[in-house]
Amino acid sequence: MNRALDLSYLRGKPVPVMGLGLSGLATAQALQASGVEVWAWDDSPESVAKARAAGAHVVDLTIADLSQCEILVLSPGIPHSFPEPHPIVLRAREAGLKLVGDVELLARAAPQARKVGITGTNGKSTTTALIGHVLQKAGIEVAIGGNLGIPVLTFPTLSANGVYVLEMSSYQLELLDTLVFDVGVHLNVTPDHLDRHGGMPGYVAAKARMFVGQKAGQTAIVGVDDLYSADMARNLGKQKLVRLSVKHAEPDGITVVDGIIVENGRRVADVSDIPTLPGAHNWQNAGAAYAACRALGIDEATVLAHMRSFPGLPHRQQLVATINGVRYVNDSKATNADAAAKALGCYEQIRWIAGGRPKIGGLTGLDRYMPRVAKAYLIGEAQADFARWLEGRAQFSLCGHLERAVADAARDAQPGDVVLLAPACASFDQYRSFEVRGQHFMELVRALEAA
């Protein structure tokens, strides 16, 4: 039977936990279960009440004496630098506390287990899940989570043969201290979260923390198809570097062009027909997962066999239903233009549902996909701006909400069309998360199917 993580090494001084969302509440509960005195706090009275009801010890960190503490466990969603530090962060720094995240606590509690980290602007969730799937099927003891949505302090204690497979956001990477990844994967960089990092250089620097501390015998897998990531690869240290491209040949790395994985110039496999991994962006994910599993010692045939049984992830180009010859695809995770481009590039005749809370850049870079769009159905705060951008590029209608967008797209669609939810926006204008938005889309489609 797997043992819960032992965080008792933190006993002796109070441990403040700031931010009581999913991971923060799990952190407070895991610390208390190990006999650690926890001071749990959140800006939201509702979150504080929920934590108190769940048994967390609540202390107001706006007035608490933080000089008694050594660390502040900070939710990755709380700013500590840009656009300005949270007031609790300022209090913690004045008291000399080190800022850490829950992933750092996991690393200290289970130093014996191997750690695989996956980051990148796009594709990290699929790559994380794919690596975890292959390892599980190969009989390896695995725990999979992090930014993927599973709090890491709910993980069991793994042995030296076990592997923690961790999706890492830029926010989480900034909160690492001692953790060094045995295998680090960086897929790509496009502009995102720039307000939290003070611009593109800060964002890239946060992503590059994936490889801090790696030495000979550890592996860095770097997608080199954008200039920022290529530069990142050039500046690594003594770890083994595996360069990964879906655009050009990498003689001493991994190339996946037209779905063909080529390793060090040798053809390995064709993954273009794996239904849960469509398109060049998923071929990059497949190449990265292949390289990571091989770096962990899994033989080639085993890796390739289990990649084919990958079930895919919810809200990532998820085929919900085919109704009267029309496919309905949920890619609610496409929260920026670059992610939406990956989905738009996979289909030919698209009824595109887009919009929500816009991100910097809007729909910039999507011009070449517009011939594929039969019509766009716009929702949310971005619909007026998106309409202006689409003028002269593609037909569109202003739908406001997802219910009307799905209904109108279903009415207009012809056999062979794809009704694609790829919003190119955050969800927070109408939904609390992209998952809730995607779930609503699926419910609307299933209602069509049942009609």
From TrEMBL:
Residues of the signal peptide: none
User: Which Gene Ontology terms cover its molecular function?
Assistant: ATP binding; tetrahydrofolylpolyglutamate synthase activity; UDP-N-acetylmuramoylalanine-D-glutamate ligase activity
Q: Which Gene3D superfamilies match?
A: Mur ligase, C-terminal domain (3.90.190.20), Mur-like, catalytic domain (3.40.1190.10), NAD(P)-binding Rossmann-like Domain (3.40.50.720)
Q: Residue limits of the Mur ligase C-terminal domain?
A: 315-425
State its location(s). Cytoplasm
What reaction is this protein's catalytic activity?
Answer: UDP-N-acetyl-alpha-D-muramoyl-L-alanine + D-glutamate + ATP = UDP-N-acetyl-alpha-D-muramoyl-L-alanyl-D-glutamate + ADP + phosphate + H(+)
* Classification of source organism: Bacteria, Pseudomonadati, Pseudomonadota, Alphaproteobacteria, Rhodospirillales
What InterPro entries does this protein's entry cite?
A: Folylpolyglutamate_synth_CS, Mur-like_cat_sf, Mur_ligase_C, Mur_ligase_C_dom_sf, Mur_ligase_cen, MurD, NAD(P)-bd_dom_sf
Q: Which UniProt keywords apply?
A: ATP-binding, Cell cycle, Cell division, Cell shape, Cell wall biogenesis/degradation, Cytoplasm, Ligase, Nucleotide-binding, Peptidoglycan synthesis
What does the record list as GO biological process? cell division; cell wall organization; peptidoglycan biosynthetic process; regulation of cell shape
* Name of protein: UDP-N-acetylmuramoylalanine--D-glutamate ligase
Q: What class of enzyme is it?
A: ligase
**Record keyword Cell division present:** yes
Q: Which family does it belong to?
A: Belongs to the MurCDEF family.
- Taking every annotated instance into account, which residue ranges of this chain make up the domain Mur ligase central? 118-292
Task performed by this protein = Cell wall formation. Catalyzes the addition of glutamate to the nucleotide precursor UDP-N-acetylmuramoyl-L-alanine (UMA).
| Residues reported to bind ATP | G120, T121, N122, G123, K124, S125, T126
Q: Which organism is it from?
A: Roseiterribacter gracilis
Q: Does the record carry Ligase as a key word?
A: yes
